[in-house]
């Protein structure tokens, strides 16, 4: 039974999960690793090692080192000498005394003599566990195997040149360097010590001194006790269960998903907790990670404070979609919200999965060596694939003088599952961390609440598709519409202009940050309007035949068939001018925004007119300042109120009651 208990711990480490999870015992695992006798010997691996003075330093460490289930819990009275003595089948690569120098030997012995769990776990992970693997790994046919060591690391066992992770095998005392048999496994002798590399999580957790980034990541660890996986003992005097062997699971919220919410009480979280979206502890993946120094962390935090100013009170706009009165979040801690939001915004974009990057130059697959050389430069600034994609889902393209390779402005450090860049500046472009907000009106929907008399639109208000390519002759001269769609805001009656309120939450897939949110600071607020005659074309009214004049040419093809082709296209600008003259817009807008009160404040109304000719961007508020940020808030956002202002007298002068709107843009000013 003791052997089976140890098997499940070793199995957990071999699966690379010891730092995050230690699963319980399974019959399947134990059956797979039952002892396999060798006809060549009847002695164990430990007897092989202990009996040879050339391996005395390794033996001293092994017989003093306890086996740790995780970084806190050791298996009582069980050492690595016991592991190598049992029926568990292992392969051990033993560095002999010439490879394990006196200084190296003393370093590990001092850690064991300290008696601390942290030091004991370090010896296991960085030394002993880096030289032992489950099952037999013999050199027979030439090849290169990836071996999962019991510390979870994947090491390269090259049987062509006989090396383990680049360290050559040595001649043992018997003249045999490899495939030394034992009843419970195989032994090889090394000329050196296999190099240990942290994975990203280990480095952030265990490196000294620990950085602020490391402190932040580790603070998201949660450890759970698993009664199902633990071994139950006799009940206590009150009948409660006790455990002779307790198993714990540790998970990190940053790894689980891009956005974390608790399973219970999520309705009280005004913010998601954002993470990497991938497990940087995973040894079988390949990542690139930016790791800001403490100075870079502090400088970035200060840089972001102005755009991350929060209030104590926010309207819960999610209730608006249900056509009920808004709830209010009260008594919030602005400093805590600011800290949480800034730290999430600094940390969530730092990781890149190498295998999910676009090919360099459109054809060459990225490798770590290529990435180290070119630092993420796609090789062709005109190529649409010249971007990097982080694990959170952000697409980082060149913008202005900035390019993605500017992020990696230091030399790389090797990790067991990728490469890290310990950067002295958090060098993302301004367009990324204080982006413009692009709202596709046809995608955002109209915001409602019980004040329904304030928001009236006609039944025919809906999205229309308008192909920029199909009407290229028009759009090249009179303007394209964003994403080939626009929104028709119909009048609520024959002479009743529409009234609507739009959510200001980014949703434009073509924007630099598609889902950007309004942050504290100044913006120019703009409404992009579309000529009404674009709607007539989208409606299929046939008006395009009056606008577009096509010249055709008749000719006979090689089979003698009469063929007609278009030989020229011309727009009738007089018709377009006349359409514009009778399809002008007049409207007013205001902004509803947080002013740290129970109800959002409404800005002053601004009236605008539009001549009806081209796709036009109209600024409805210049240098408008939002005093409080909405960044990362789940249920709160500002809105833009839009009201048609066409009167009966205006209608006589070419103004219409309905409107065609493309998008709302908030251009960041600071």
Commentary on this structure:
The chain is an alpha+beta fold and about 675 residues long. Among the domains are: about 1-195, FAS1 domain (Roll); about 435-670, Galactose-binding domain-like (Jelly Rolls, Sandwich). It is built from 20 helices and 35 strands. The strands form 11 sheets. Strands 23, 24, 25, 27, 33 and 35 form a 6-stranded antiparallel sheet that branches. Strands 26, 30, 31, 32 and 34 form a 5-stranded antiparallel sheet that branches. The chain has a 4-stranded mixed sheet with strand order 4-3-10-9. Strand 28 (about 550-555) and strand 29 form a beta hairpin. Helix 6 runs antiparallel to helix 7 and helix 11 (about 295-305) crosses helix 12 (about 335-345). It starts with a helix and ends with a strand. About 40% of the residues are buried.
Main beta sheet: 6 strands, antiparallel
Give the beta-strand count.
35
Say which CATH homologous superfamily of the domain at 437-668 is assigned.
Answer: Galactose-binding domain-like
Helix content: 10-25%
Low-confidence stretches: 1-5, 8-39
Span from first to last CA? 67 Å
Shape: elongated
In DSSP terms, counting alpha (H) and pi (I) runs of 4 or more, how many helices? Answer: 20
- Our estimate of the beta-strand percent is 25-35%
CATH topology of the domain at 437-668: Jelly Rolls
Rg, please? 34 Å
Identify the CATH architecture of the domain at 437-668: Sandwich
